[in-house]
UniProtKB/TrEMBL annotation:
One of its GO terms (molecular function) is transmembrane transporter activity. It holds the Pfam family MFS_1. Gene3D superfamilies: MFS general substrate transporter like domains. SUPFAM superfamilies: MFS general substrate transporter. This is MFS transporter. It comes from the Bacteria. Keywords: Membrane, Transmembrane, Transmembrane helix. The chain crosses the membrane at residues 21-44, 56-76, 83-101, 107-126, 147-167, 179-199, 220-248, 254-273, 285-304, 310-335, 356-375, 381-399. InterPro entries: MFS, MFS_trans_sf.
Length: 421
């Protein structure tokens, strides 16, 4: 066992310096991600008891993300990428502070906090994706995302339980809001540490300065369609677990406990998959993730009780990392090919990719709002997620087509020399 661990540490040490710095930066910041993803939505539910406000919060986040991607492209011509990456991490604490300072959770206040959180995500993901693309290659991307997912999932064992029960016990003592404020302060401290780690990297800005294009190779539009299908579920995935648990289980402590069940198994599984799989295996990993998410949605819809929520979260613990582990390398392989073919900056594709995600997110969140408005919140939580999960199953065939065409483009860009006797 010790020899195996030593071999894995040596393998990590054999990666490039920037690879290691980026991984450690993301590891530190991942400590606050469960807080941002789950407990902010739970805070809105606790203080408003209105799932529609949670969705409005999410919609404003998703509106802030593409706008910040565009702003980030302009700022990359003037500021170091690691500064903008650090800014994204810091803004998450600012957004939480705005939310905690609201005396009443009206739509305007929730929307402002959501826009700032969207800016945080925009700066974070725009620069994180570019740095991941520039510091990895097609051969080690499965390992990179397997390693990241391993750390994220392990952290998801500890953080939700600690914070969830801390908030719930504080609520029993009559001061839940103070507990949320203390958590916000801890988030600020962790983002500062993550930023300090990021500044140790020797990261370079994109070489080509033009990032905005309106026409692309037809191959790119397949990936945009895949991005829209991914965004369709993202419109639910961040807030739906919190809403379901608060409605059907009731408290943040239960929320944290459910988030942690099975996470250690999922973490080890993701690391093994990332370490051992080849680029040719991505479509199978992706398909398994899609299937597990569809099963989770159906179970939740049929049962729609405490047991259903627990099973939904358990399946989600496996489905989400499997999807991410396969999706990002597929996305980056397309960008690698087209940036060479069209001679454009990689960031131009990262920026445009956000358009596809945004369209999907609006469609997913809009589906929930329409069903909640015309029927009820229960109907929306029960059946809308089945609708989007069923639609997302189409992603398998889209991804399969992208991989197949990618091989053809690679062969055309790197033709084999003819053999002569």
């Amino acid at each position: 066992m010790l020899n195996k661990l030593k071999n894995e540490l040596q393998h990590f040490g054999s990666q490039s310096y920037n690879f290691r710095v980026l991984t450690l930066t993301n590891l530190i910041y991942s400590i606050v991600l469960p807080v941002i993803d789950i407990f902010v939505a739970a805070y809105v539910m606790r203080n408003s008891n209105d799932p529609s406000k949670v969705v409005v919060y999410q919609l404003t986040i998703y509106t802030g993300i593409p706008l910040t991607f565009l702003l980030n492209g302009w700022l990359l011509n003037r500021f170091p990428v690691k500064l903008l990456y650090s800014l994204g991490m810091m803004l998450s604490g600012v957004s939480m502070t705005i939310m905690m300072s609201l005396k009443t959770l009206d739509i305007t206040g929730v929307g402002v906090a959501g826009i700032v959180m969207g800016m945080s995500f925009g700066f974070y993901w725009a620069n994180r994706d570019f740095l991941a693309l520039s510091t990895t290659n097609d051969n080690n991307r499965n390992y990179y995302y397997g390693l990241e997912t391993f750390f994220y999932t392990i952290i998801a064992v500890v953080i939700p339980v600690i914070i969830g029960w801390f908030i719930e016990l504080s609520a029993r003592a009559g001061d839940a809001k103070m507990a949320y404020k203390m958590v916000t302060g801890i988030v600020f401290i962790i983002t500062i540490i993550a930023s300090a780690m990021c500044f140790r990297g020797r990261f370079e800005n994109p070489v080509n300065k033009k990032f905005v294009f309106f026409t692309f190779d037809p191959y790119w539009y397949k990936l945009l369609f895949l991005a829209a299908l991914k965004g369709l579920v993202q419109g639910f995935l961040v807030t739906a677990p919190a809403m379901l648990i608060m409605l059907l289980l009731g408290q943040e402590g239960a929320l944290g406990t459910v988030q942690s069940i099975g996470a250690i198994f999922a973490a080890i599984l993701m690391y093994v998959i990332g370490r051992l799989t080849l680029p040719s295996h991505r479509i199978y990993v992706f398909g398994l993730g899609l299937l597990l998410f569809a099963v989770a949605a159906v179970i939740n819809g049929i049962l729609f009780n405490a047991t259903g929520v627990i099973l939904f979260m358990l399946f989600l613990l496996l489905a989400k990392p499997l999807l991410d582990l396969a999706y990002f390398p597929i996305q980056f392989s397309v960008i690698d090919l087209l940036s060479k073919k069209e001679k454009r900056s990689e960031f131009a594709y990262i920026l445009n990719h956000e358009t596809g995600l945004y369209i999907g997110r609006l469609a997913g969140a809009g589906t929930f709002l329409l069903m909640a408005y015309f029927f009820s919140n229960e109907i929306a939580l029960r059946y809308a997620i089945i609708i989007v999960a069923s639609l997302q199953l189409c992603s398998y065939w889209v991804a399969k087509s992208i991989i197949r065409q990618g091989k053809e483009i690679t062969q055309s860009l790197n033709p084999q020399p003819e053999y002569h006797e």
